[in-house]
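<tokenise_the_fold>
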Amino acid sequence: ILGREYLNILFNEASEIDYETYLTVKTRLAQLVDGATNRIFVDLNPTSSRHWCKKLFVDKMDPVKNIRVASPERYAYMTIHPMANKDNVSKDYLEMLRNMPENQKRRFFDGLFRDDAQFALWKSETINRNRVTEQKMPPLKRIVVAVDPAVSAKETSDETGIVVVGL
């Protein structure tokens, strides 16, 4: 990849590509052609709402810094439903997608990003709403993470406790 320059780049199935790779390839978007604009195109079947594609193209947030991207108007997304392509795929295929378990159906048939795990203690939305950015955070001398794990996984088991404290 390095050592070459491109006018346009397509990331196919970006759910399989990590953000660091995306950033590295993005540095190759340097080919100069009069009257043309350099562009990156990304496609994927949506995965978790925590995936870098969702953060970058839908939420317009930097996936690492968790801050708004500098030029949000340069990021866009669209959803193409399999039914819009029904003339080019078999009816059996569409029926199979329609009858998948709910999580897979949301991803492959409805084209929706998956929400947090059903029984997650903390939802991504709550974490992001309460996130403290570097600009607002005072300098810390020490950070301690304490975990009191449950020792069994039964209905009557104690819950796992987690505490994060900064000095």
